[in-house]
Amino acid sequence: MLSGKIALVTGGGSGIGRAVCRLLARDGARVVATDMDGGAAQETINMLKGKAHCVLLKHRDDHLSLKMDVTDKTSVESAISAAIDKYKAPPSLITNAAGIIRDNFMLQMDEKSFMEVLDVNLKGTYLVTQVATMALAEHDASSGSIVNISSISGKLGTIGQSNYSASKAGVIGFTKSTAMELASMGVRVNCVLPGFTQTAMVGGVPDKVVKLILKMTPLKRMAQPEEIAEVVAFLLSDKSSFMTGASVEVTGGLGM
Ligand code: NAI
Fold first, then answer.
1. CA distance 100 to 118
2. Residue 167 sits in which domain range?
3. Can you give the pLDDT at residue 56?
4. Which family does it belong to (predicted)?
5. Is the pTM of this model over 0.90?
6. Please, is 204 exposed, middle or buried when counting C-beta atoms within 10 Å of its C-beta (0-12, 13-18, 19+)?
7. Residue 94: inside a domain
8. Residue nearest to atom 41 of ligand 1 (CA)
9. What is the ipTM of this complex?
């Protein structure tokens, strides 16, 4: 399905990003797992090369891990250049999954926590999209697909997450604007709005908050990262060839 494609994933060292790497490799893509934590990105690649997967995964020796900080343009440019050096072509499938939380009530939130979240979740998405798209243009690529990981919090808001909700609402707007601008280049841009998903990110959420969210979720459970990654893989693939600018909710019914 994605045979021969080069797919770059940010936040590829954990959670949803790691699951996206696994499924894209399963579907035949050559995967560039990037993360601020270079060791975690390498672990993802080691998993792709692991014996348990070797029968299923194509190109298993052709994946790459890179340390990349999405908030730093030089770091993003170096990573895209390294991918081009390896494959002699730029990645055409981009997943922006790097993200952080710094939760607090708005009245208590300091400026640093507010800006850090905007920097990683929103500015990072912009920088990676811009650098990756410019590389595609420089190589006269005729198609590409970008998936940004927003959040249902970007649509509904969440108590204690004014910074995070603002960043994820920003990702939805950014997705729509770039979808309009890049359509003529043959590049589609969509975003996914996950609900509560079992990853390290939600590990520190207090039990009573978890219970409350599950109560509000019709399917009464958290998502597994693979359940989000399957939708990302679909949006990256040609199976979604008439979709661009879409915000796809994967929430177990939360916020419908
Ligand atoms: P996670 O914490 O498991 O993974 C996030 C990854 O991003 C980590 O590997 C981390 O090292 C990396 N990262 C953080 N800052 C970075 C930076 N500056 N540059 C590069 N990499 C950086 O989190 P999870 O849950 O897998 O989140 C993935 C995406 O999904 C995030 O954008 C998150 O906001 C979003 N999301 C998660 C939900 C959840 O319930 N887990 C719900 C809705 C959206």
1. 9
2. 6-249
3. 52
4. Belongs to the short-chain dehydrogenases/reductases (SDR) family.
5. yes
6. exposed
7. yes
8. 197
9. 0.99
User: Per-residue pLDDT for 49 more than 90?
Assistant: no
Q: Which residues line ligand 1 (CB under 6 A)?
A: 10-11, 13-17, 35-37, 40, 68-71, 97-100, 120-121, 124, 149, 151, 194, 196-197, 199-202
**Number of compact structural domains in the chain:** 1
Give the pLDDT confidence of 214-227 residue by residue, as tens digits. Answer: 999 999 999 999 99
Residue 255 domain flag: no
pLDDT > 70? residue 80: yes
Q: How far is residue 201's CA from residue 104's CA, in Å, rounded to a whole number?
A: 15
109 token code pair:
């939130």
pLDDT digits (tens, 9 = 90+) for 129-139: 999 999 999 99
Q: C-alpha angle 125/19/2, rounded to 5°?
A: 80
Check which CATH number belongs to the domain holding 92 and give it.
3.40.50.720
Domain for residue 14, yes or no? yes
How far apart CA 220 and CA 212 sit, in angstroms, is: 10
Residue 92: which pLDDT band, with cuts at 50, 70 and 90?
Answer: very high
CA of 141 to the centre of ligand 1 (A): 29
121 contacts 99 by C-beta, under 8 angstroms:
yes
The predicted pLDDT at position 54 comes to 47
Q: pLDDT confidence of 204, banded at 50, 70, 90?
A: confident
